[in-house]
Amino acid sequence: MTGPRILVLVTGVLCLGFILRLVRRRELRGKYSLLWLTVGIFGLVIALVPGLLDDVADWLDVNYPPAILFVIAIAFLLLVVVHLSWELTRLEDRTRTLAQELAMLRHDLEAPESDGPQ
């Protein structure tokens, strides 16, 4: 096994260990952990199966096999950014709704009662 493959293998194992640690401590939600665990497993597969990247490059007619990793990484990061933007928008809407409901409740509590005798 060559040096770069060992580096990828060690990095993949460390990534998987770190993600599992975050999940166990409940610092990372399950839906995000599956995403990152998939990335770690993908790295391990690339490291453990030496000819896989070359075979995929030949199949896709790519001259430089590591370029495939860059394309996959960029596509993956683009999907992560779009998903996080969607989550942020959803959370902003929920926060605005909660703030409006809280303001209405405070107004109702602080307003003098007009129903009582005068």
Walk me through this protein's architecture.
The protein folds into 2 domains: 1-50; 64-110. It has 4 helices and no strands. It has helices spanning 3-24, 30-48, 52-60, 66-110. Helix 1 packs antiparallel against helix 2. The model has no long low-confidence stretch (mean pLDDT 86).
Number of helices: 4
* Rounded Rg: 25 Å
Beta-strand proportion:
under 5%
Which structural class fits the helix and strand makeup?
A: mainly alpha
Order of helices and strands: HHHH
* Low-pLDDT runs: none
List keywords for this structure.
2 domains; 118 residues; mainly alpha; single chain
Topology record:
Elements: H1 3-24, H2 30-48, H3 52-60, H4 66-110
Quick overview of this protein structure:
The chain has 118 residues and is mainly α.
